[in-house]
Design brief:
alpha+beta, Nuclear Transport Factor 2, Chain: A, six-stranded mixed β-sheet
Length: 127
């Protein structure tokens, strides 16, 4: 297997773990410090730096603490170059269903997320 694929998949595993446990320290090792977080799901641009995003993650109750089953999966990983990749993933937190486009860069032999652009839907509830 391509070692780049293995490295990005391992980074995605840490990403999913960090989200499930609301572990900002773990996520800070997956995201590049200058990464951005962005979405237009609400009809306007949401844009944050890691200085704003990671404390927000740390402050929320974790899906693990609420006993939520993990619903995360890698949909695709594509390489644009030896040092650039795009991963499309899906995960859930509560009733929110996320599709994340995660742009990775490899610097000093480490793959890190430089941009998270996502869409979120609210799961339908049963009557």
């Amino acid at each position: 297997m391509d070692p780049r694929l293995t490295a990005v998949a391992e980074a995605l595993g840490r990403y999913f773990d960090g989200l499930h446990h609301s572990d900002a320290a773990l996520l800070s090792g997956v995201f590049h410090p200058r990464a951005i977080y962005a979405s237009a799901s609400a009809g306007s641009l949401t844009h944050m730096t890691m200085d704003a995003y990671l404390p927000m993650v740390a402050a929320r109750p974790s899906p693990a603490s609420r006993g939520e089953a993990r619903q995360d999966r890698i949909l695709s990983i594509a390489f644009a170059s030896p040092v650039t990749a795009l991963a499309t993933v899906a995960c859930a937190i509560g009733e929110k269903r996320f599709t994340d486009l995660l742009s990775f860069v490899s610097l000093d032999g480490e793959w890190r997320i430089i941009a998270k652009v996502f869409h979120v839907d609210i799961a339908a509830t049963e009557p």
